[in-house]
Amino acid sequence: MIEGQYYPGPLGFRIISQEVDFTLMIGGSDPIEFNAILNRLMEIFGAFTISNQGFTIPALQRHSRDAITRIIEILKSVKNKQLRNNLVSMKQSFGKIEIDEYYFVFPLCFSIDSNEHLNIEKELAYINNSGTFFNESELDQYFFKILDSYNIKAYGHRETIIGNKGKRTCRFCGKKYPKTCFKETAHSFPEGIGNKLITTRDECDTCNHIYNDKYDAHFSRLHQVSMAAHEVRGKSGVPKIESETISLENVNGRLLLVDKTNAINSFDNQPDSIKINVIPGFSNRDLYKALCRYAINVMHNDELSNFSDTIKWINNELPFTLLPSIFLNTKMPFQIDPAIALYLRKNNDESLPYAVCEFKFLHFLYAFIVPKNDKEAIYFSDASNFETFFKFFKHYTELYKNFQKITPDDSLVRLTYFFKKHEAQP
Description:
This protein is of the alpha+beta class. Among the domains are: 2-110, no CATH class; 223-281 and 416-425, no CATH class. Helix content is 31%, strand content 26%. The chain has helices at residues 31-44, 65-77, 81-94, 114-129, 136-149, 205-222, 224-229, 284-297, 308-314, 374-381, 383-392, and strands spanning 2-5, 11-16, 20-26, 48-51, 54-57, 60-62, 102-107, 150-155, 160-162, 198-200, 241-242, 246-251, 254-259, 273-278, 326-329, 334-345, 355-362, 364-369, 403-406, 415-420, 423-425. Strands 2, 3, 6, 7, 8, 15, 16, 17, 18 and 19 form a ten-stranded mixed sheet that branches. A three-stranded antiparallel sheet has the order 1-5-4, with no helix packed on it. It has a three-stranded antiparallel sheet with strand order 11-12-13. A hairpin with a 3-residue loop joins strand 2 and strand 3 (20-26). The radius of gyration is 23 Å and the shape is globular.
């Protein structure tokens, strides 16, 4: 159960389902309107009043058509702009949850660590699929197996600053002030895909600029079509995509696709379907380097010495002969805030990689090994060794289906989007 009090906002909740993981903020300048709207919203969650100043709602919820209908009805009566924007965001996010699907709602002040988040995913998978993937004892056995072998750190749902506060040494070039500067904010992974929360103290301005030009700008462009489709703000707002033949723009929550070759330029005159190939201009090998850099950017300083060869490889100072595959799932539960989970092995079982990372945002999930050195990279590039790792992380094949394998070679990264009217999916 969640207990709370009525007050003139803002009030924050975190909603976690198999389809979305988002923050819901409700606030307004008029306390009378705010409390009236909040009362109607709490009824959607099955709240009952404790007193004139409080409420309680069940943490486990089941989505319904009635909930969407009620939100729409509430929107019609809201005058305050801030409150209305909050409710529009709520309606869009709840629209991504399946009818009759179970989800959890938590107060925003409620801290959820990586272990607890795994348990939430486990419970939702079991409740919503009636044991389709595993029975309950198998789920418990599986998740405990991961936690027995790996320490897990997850970042992405609250503001976090990585690195030491004192005299800083750049974790990528090893330079200190005054040989380099730390004046700018270094985002641990690109601000261009909506990361406003996770930053790294000890990435110097020079390295930050180099990596932005070489990796981050390309990585952001790779995903701008999805950002536009879901109205996600990057560094310069919601992206608008332009090419010689098409333009793509989110207009008041609706996706307007203009086929310049056919003069299609209105919502009423949209093509039934269209395919868009996004080729941002960097290789699959550079994609792997970018992802490994994001993992290293959230590591504790004590871990960095284990990845000195990896950093040299990212900086093109040391070659890695062979590389294990990257796995990409484009059909993941939707979440707005980019998030990263880092698994660091805590035993001596070298049949498993020392570091594994999952990088998730929108409906994308990149899962990859962060090799410590060339020897480990070569070992897990072998098909049988890689299969051992992949079977251990069983949720990749069971809970998270639809993975596609990316070979980190010198071929250009390509992502293809297939559009139908009012929807998009890569």
